Amino acid sequence: MAKKEETESAAETELEAALPLGPQPLPELIEFRQIDDAATMKALADPLRQRIMRALGRNVHVKARIMTVKQLAEELGEPTTKLYRHMKQLLAVNLIQVAELRLVGGIVEQHYRVAQKGWGVNPERSMLDRSALSEELVELVGAGVNEYFGRYEAALQAGRTHVRSLDSLENPPYVRSVGSISDFRVPRERAAEFAERFHALVEEFNSHPNTTEGDIVHANLLAMFYATEADEALGE
Q1: What class, spelled out in words, does domain 2-120 have in CATH?
Q2: Which residues pair with 121 in a beta bridge?
Q3: How far is CA 101 from the centre of its chain?
Q4: What is the pLDDT of residues 16-43, one digit of tens each?
Q5: Domain regions of the chain by residue span
Q6: Structure pTM?
Q7: Coil vs helix vs strand at 120
Q8: Closest-CA residue to 96 (of 113, 118, 111)
Q9: Strand 96-104 relative to strand 22-23: parallel, antiparallel, unpaired?
Q10: Which domain of life is it from (predicted)?
């Protein structure tokens, strides 16, 4: 046990340079951070780091969570030592911050919080060249998809959501589950018209802020639509 604590202490010491004990002088949380640089995209291009961000950001619109690596590890079901490298990468791009240092049993214990209430990727604002942006963005999206389906699988196993629409309407929270994986050959005009309506619907959904008032549920959305030129040779 002593060796394990020494290892964890050394890892955390490496994670951050020496700071004074107590609460750290931090700025107000950013309301929303637009991610448009390669370094931050790369930091987020990992399902575990996105899980860390989600855990720290839970209910942040009400009150920012301040957690140790050990607390995060317990909540995520991961080994404590596994998280240090990921925390270091998130710190490096200021997605998370050291909020407080406490002396516990002779060991300096670091507590972390997110630096923003929400974040999103905006490829249109990026200063990257197109090839670099595509590589970083694809990795980030892939990590996000994996993280989303990890949460979906956990919710299914716990009986908190259902695959069949009828089951979702007959069980709490009594909201229809909707899903589709499809590919069709359709007229260009139809694809373009659907894309515009789909885009507007997603924008409308995302425009509503988090709320804690009234009869609320936790809604989860993964939205993606793309079209390619049909390849006659492949019969697409």
Answers
A1: mainly alpha
A2: 35
A3: 25
A4: 556 788 899 999 999 999 998 889 999 9
A5: 2-120, 178-229
A6: 0.75
A7: strand
A8: 113
A9: antiparallel
A10: Bacteria
